[in-house]
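hiii, so i know i said id send this last week but things got crazy w the move. better late than never?? heres the sequnce for the chain we talked about at the cafe, plus the structure i predicted for it. fair warning i was half asleep when i ran it
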Amino acid sequence: MDRLNPLVKERIRRTEWFLKARFGMFIHWGLYAIPARGEWVRNAERLSNEDYQQYFDEFNPDSYDPSKWAKAAKEAGMKYAVMTTKHHDGFCLFDSKLTDYKATNTKAGRDLIREYVEAFRAEGLKVGFYYSLLDWHHEGYPAYGDRHHPMRDNEAYRGQKRDFGRYLEYMHGQVKELLTGYGKIDIMWFDFSYDHMSGETWRATELVNMVRSLQPHIIIDNRLGGNIKSRTPEVYAGDFACPEQIIPPEGVLDEDGDSIPWEACVTLNNHWGYAARDKDYKSPKQVVRALVECVSKNGNLLLNVGPNARGEIPEESLDILEQVGKWMRKNGESIYECGYTELPKPEWGRYTRKGNLLYAHIYERGIGPINLRGLWGKIRKARLLADKSEIKLERPWNAVDYPDDAFIVLPSQQLPDEIDTVVELELE
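okay and structure toks below
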């Protein structure tokens, strides 16, 4: 570790808890829950501030109770959460003193982020803030010709002078508000850089230094820009990578081939924000196996929910989380504080590891005993993790051609758990 760059050393120290937690909840919520066509509705439908104002006037989440969200996250086995404080549409769920475009000025009439923080802390979960670097409402943010702004090709906006410096002061000021007004915050999740809107365009070094001065322990994602994989990363390169809607084939590695902290952020259906017609939900099996895959590659899973306009997490999402939680209560030991192993990926599933405990995540029963390649003589005992019942280690009579392999014999031709049967292997 002595050879490492000081910024990398600090990253390792800050992310120690993060690499143990492994599973978190992402929450995308805002005015876009009312049109219910996803969080990019302004972009997709070219909605101006005036077009979008009706949703601000209407916003009144009468069923918002973040304690229910927090309980659902905890029951699912999640250890932390990240919630949108401001998305690209510029609407603030917190009581910012720098704008009138905020929840306290809607029919909601209160600081919705404060309630989120208090509720999730009460359940013992770590708390994170998502903050969009983009802002389609602010008069200083570039509009015409920008790749993402809803008014990007509206001729009425051509030639408008936009004071981007004023926007940066606003953006920095809001981040300071978030990190001084809500106690200890564990994660700052910035979103996102593109084209020339990256790095020092955001005054990123200044921004990160301010964040670190206010909350030195906080971990920051890598979407301000920079190269988190470098031996000498920029100040603003971040503490963890966050691949979106994909699990990298080998995890995320630095330029020396060493694993760096990362989390895959993934939706439960096909949208981040609430989309009423999107019923294409992932199954509990898909979610559990995605989580296992992330951990087997030394990563985390940040799983998104998109509450509706009333402030309710959709029943479909809650049902999935409940089923995932049932699996986690029996098998969470194979997830928390676990990481990758040097063993090649087995044909029947995945491995995760914690110290001398190797966890075989068996997805496919196959024919005959389960082959543990290269592990003969290295296993002290095997137990089904869900109930700690003994699993026999045997060498079949017809396995003479595989002297280096161990074999476990399951009690039936069907897997005990079709989602993921976990066998705990205590190594010598």
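btw The first strand starts at residue 23 and ends at 27. thought thatd interest u
miss u guys!!
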